[in-house]
Amino acid sequence: MSAEITTISVANQGQPRKPLGQIFVERGLLTEVSVQRLIAHARQKSIRLGELLEVIGLITPDELAEALATQYRCRKIADFAKFSYPANLLRLISLEIAVKNTIFPLKMDGDRLAVAVADPTIDGALQEIAAQNNLKIILYVATRSEINRAIARHYLGQVMGEPNLKTILLVEDDLLVREMVAKTLSRKGYTVETAVDGMDAFSKIFTLKPKLVITDKVMPKLGGYEFLFAIRNIPEFRFMPVILMTAAATPDEEKEALEKGFFDFVLKPVKEIGLLTRVQRAFQSSESLYGKIA
C-alpha cells in the first residue's frame, strides 16, 4: 500500500499543475521568451528550472517558494525555526534525511504529519517517511534557508555564528590524511577545524562559519558533492569557496566538479605546494567579495 502525500488546499485539485515557468510569467517576473531559453539552459545543465533561476539571481528564494506552493497547491510557510518542536516529532525524520532532502517536520495531528519542504518533488523520501511511520504527509513549502535554519537550531542546537577570519573546515574521513593536511595548513597560520564526513561538517558549519571548506569526495553519510549542494542552499555559505579532494580525476570529472560549484580541486596524495597555492587563491577570492582578511 503506497503512502499518502497530500497538500493543504483542495481548490482546483482536479486540474493539472501549471508549469513553473508559466507561473513566473503570469506574475510578471519573467517573459515567455526568457522562460523558454532558461528551460533549454536548465536541461543542458541537468538541473531544475527553479534551481537555475535562484542560482543566477533572476528570482528570490521567497519567489521560488511562493511559485512552488502555487504549482503544488499547498501553503508557503516561513519563520518557523523560532518555535519549539518536541523530540518525538523530530525523531520521525532523521538528521541525515532532513539534510539530504531539505525537509523539516512541523506538526503531528493524529495520523497526519505536516512537513516543510523546499522541493515538493522529493516523492521517494516522503514516501519512505510516511511508510515507516504509517502516516499521511501534508506538504508545506518553505525556502531552503528557512528549513536549514530550523535543522540547525532544533536538530543540532546551533545558530548562525560570526565568520571566523582565517578558519578552514577540513572534511576528511581518513585520519592520516586529515591530520597531515591539518598540520600543513596550521603551520601556515590557518585555523583548521576538522570533520569526519559531510554530515559532521554540516553540523559544525553554522557555528564555525569558516571562510573556506576543503572536503573529500567520497565519505560515509554525506559525500563531498552532497555536502556542497546542502550548503549552497544556505545564503550565508552560497559564495564560500569549497575545494574538493579526490584520489583521481579525469578531465570530465574535473569539468563536472567546477560546473557543480567547487572552487578548485586537489589530487591525493596531497602535495603541500599545490594545496597551499589553491588555499591562498581561495582566500583571495573571498577577499574580493568580502574585503581583506586581517
UniProtKB/TrEMBL annotation:
* SMART domains in alphabetical order: REC
User: Which example biological process does GO assign this protein?
Assistant: phosphorelay signal transduction system
What InterPro entries is this protein classified in?
Answer: Bact_response_regulator, CheY-like_superfamily, Sig_transdc_resp-reg_receiver, T2SS_E_N_sf, T2SS_GspE_N
What region holds the Response regulatory domain? Answer: 167-283
- Carrying 4-aspartylphosphate, the residues are D216
> TM spans, by residue?
none
Keywords from the UniProt entry: Phosphoprotein
Per the record, the domain of life is Bacteria
Please name the PANTHER family in this protein's record: CHEMOTAXIS TWO-COMPONENT RESPONSE REGULATOR, STRESS RESPONSE REGULATOR PROTEIN 1
Q: What name does the UniProt record give this protein? A: Response regulatory domain-containing protein
Where is the organism placed in the taxonomic lineage, from the top? Answer: Bacteria, Pseudomonadati, Thermodesulfobacteriota, Desulfuromonadia, Geobacterales
